[in-house]
DNA sequence: GGACAATTTGGTAGCGCTACCATTTTCCGC
DNA sequence: GCGGAAAATGGTAGCGCTACCAAATTGTCC
């Protein structure tokens, strides 16, 4: 066995190796790397040469310890496989890829308790910013966010009482708009089919209910929900249930596009005509909605843009200029398609 | 302005605060937290009480710096929104949620250069393990992996020459199996439709070609590919192109399920009968495949399990017992459905 | 040309934790 | 009851970096 190197770290070049080679003080190297404009042209060149020659890469752990601030964005989403959050996360990643910030992604599994645990873990790293999905944090989580000592952006939804900043849209309005569209199209026995029923789904349901009540069409038997995670096959099953419960059903507003697709397939399978016999509206407007036959009406949401905007706001806050607009509503768009064109 | 606290870190309790309160040495607290069995029952209790009372949370950055090892799994995937990788990542997250390990997720965007850059960044943190998608790393990436000084698991594919460990399956065999199934079902003008054409897609194509040549059916005009990222709408367009090129086409093996779904919808739209006029096979077997009408034959792959297995192997290696089986082939399964039931 | 400010560079002292060793205490077996 | 090993505890010295302040150098204005 070879005796371990005297240096515990394992012999990677350190900042003082670079400093020695460049003939400057260690702190100057540190500065040249972080605030190049504060170091003279000449030293900067020498230092860069030494860095390249030694293959020096700063140790983020040491950096974080010394500066009491890690170059990490903490991101908390309820699901990794749900395309909706995947798009938000992609927006976040793309916006951060050219920055020095790393991303710490946490999956809360739609659990408030898990969110608290992850917030605790993330907080212990002193992140540069925190991005969390939703606005329904537990009191404990909310406190953790308030005391995080960094910019916080709540995404996906807007609401009256941000911890710090918010980017999203109103799910209630989205649900209402979708339902009103069906009513205008002439449907009247309009069902709601919702899986998972997380807070955002609940608010879409509330929007549905508001629209239905305003039109005098609401009937609790039209609503079919389950806490089970959403999927295309679940959409099919729930549609069957809804139809068994209310055979006169003539349209469905679906919680999301997966459910809507399941409904469409079941209609095909049982030769129910869409949009003639049944109208279908989805939510989120995944790519497949416009390709489906018939194409499916849906509420287009700007997921990728939400991720990008959240990062932009956090970055601005880190840089010191808090945006005057702390709540950004990116809205949504009703995409009218064949599935509701009676 | 209030004078900043004397302590730079911002006043969070440290290990020596705990030590003082519990009336022990700092190192004993450290041990009680990391190797409780090496500390007496009594001190352990005292220390735990002090930890709870102060709300002490260890600083992972300080820990990483002192021990030259961060409790981080680096995970590199080519896409965050592709459901296939999302499932793998979910398996990884679920397997690691009860461990002290954090996850650093990187998105390479299918770029070798980006992979190199991220490997460099990840490596600078001294991760506990590295999980990377694919087996086609650039020479630079491969060197970085070999020198990472931690267990490395390559996932999604198997191949002859692992950096360290591997979990996946043979995409070539998958492509061959899918194609052979179509041949057995009586199709003969079988097209291949592939988007993105990353290395895994290339190997599926190679499997297709092998099967077609073995049956004396291969014709280069049957192959339609594009480097454009895959989507349902792209599947529809490519199917149109393929049909325009070869009007006698009687089946398609699709690169993945999104493409297959696009093909199915286009068949509906143009009243092409499935499986009578056109047979369809997908790849990955997303949930929607069995719900589609007609249901779509696909190659079921075990994505979630790949993630779990990769973590299990890495964890074992960290614990010191390298598994005797360094290459794990989880295989795949042909799911025969209506879309090929002539 | 001298007083003063602005710019550039460097030294010191930690950040919070653990590796490494030293020391103390406990437990054996005979 | 005693030597020696094992178990339990502690002290010291960093890990690699940056905040904070001090010093040196340059520029500017009258």
Secondary-structure content class of chain A: alpha/beta
* Residue share in helix of chain A: 40-55%
Order of helices and strands of chain A: HHHHEHEHEHEEHEHEHEHEHEHEE
Strand order, sheet with most strands of chain A: 2-1-3-4-5-11
Supply the CATH architecture of the largest domain in chain A: 3-Layer(aba) Sandwich
How many separate structural domains of chain A?
3
Short description:
Chain A has 342 residues and is of the alpha/beta class. Chain A has 13 helices and twelve strands. In chain A, strands 2-1-3-4-5-11 form a six-stranded parallel sheet, with helices on both faces.
Structure description:
Residues 1-6 of chain A have low confidence and may be disordered. In chain A, helix 8 (171-184) runs parallel beside helix 9. Chain A has three domains: 15-58, 434 Repressor (Amino-terminal Domain); 71-169 and 303-332, 3-Layer(aba) Sandwich (Rossmann fold), CATH 3.40.50; 171-300 and 335-340, Rossmann fold (3-Layer(aba) Sandwich). The first copy, chain A, has helices at 15-22, 26-34, 41-54, 60-67, 83-96, 112-123, 139-146, 171-184, 199-214, 232-245, 257-269, 288-291, 303-319; strands at 72-77, 102-107, 129-133, 152-157, 165-169, 190-194, 223-225, 251-254, 279-281, 298-301, 327-329, 332-335. In chain A, 50% of the residues are buried. By secondary structure, chain A is an alpha/beta fold. In chain A, the strands form three sheets. A six-stranded parallel sheet of chain A has the order 2-1-3-4-5-11, with helices on both faces. A four-stranded parallel sheet of chain A has the order 7-6-8-9, sandwiched between helices. A two-stranded antiparallel ribbon of chain A has the order 10-12. The structure holds a DNA duplex (30 and 30 nucleotides).
